[in-house]
Design brief:
The structure holds two protein chains of two kinds. By secondary structure, chain A is mainly beta. Chain A has no helices and twelve strands. In chain A, β8 and β9 form a beta hairpin. By secondary structure, chain B is mainly beta. Chain B is built from no helices and eleven strands. The chains are: A mainly beta, B mainly beta. Chains A and B meet through β6 of A and β5 and β9 of B.
Chain lengths: 115, 124
Amino acid sequence: AQKVTQAQTEISVVEKEDVTLDCVYETRDTTYYLFWYKQPPSGELVFLIRRNSFDEQNEISGRYSWNFQKSTSSFNFTITASQVVDSAVYFCALTQRSNDYKLSFGAGTTVTVRA
Amino acid sequence: GAVVSQHPSRVICKSGTSVKIECRSLDFQATTMFWYRQFPKQSLMLMATSNEGSKATYEQGVEKDKFLINHASLTLSTLTVTSAHPEDSSFYICSARDLSQSKAGAFNSYNEQFFGPGTRLTVL
């Protein structure tokens, strides 16, 4: 079975503050892939990152960074110096071979950045 | 590359009517397409998986007679909501992936799911 937990339902910050979104996952597979997606008010899902289970290197892309820790089954996402355009729902997702690589999404975290 | 379109983007219908939603892969061949449903302030829930030329596989709790899925070509899958009722109002999202060149058991770019922009259905 696979499961993704995003415990934070909503986060509200003031512009330029940093915000970290938590993602904890469960899987029995040794090979799996983790994703983060952004869903702005328009509804269209925007792919942010994919990470496989064998690559625990942290990644930075502009103001976005990701911290993958297999020891705690977590794949957290940080937005540095948040901007109003970052306001959206963010989903963490997991896929694995034993489930034919179907995506399981977390409940999502709504981020509101106030000017 | 890897663009997926959905049509219509928004539809309003009367209770009891049927609505068809199209999902197209524009620049690749989609051997597999997925249909998701998302209620307001909730996550995406997988409804069914459709493979080109075969019957769709529905997730537990999804009525196959209610949500008819057809994947007749490598670039088009359709979802028909039959006899729609207000509780079917939701945001429907499709995704597509191309497995035709993937290695068995491996995850590569051909296993990636590419999402459509979604269709907002409102049943009055």
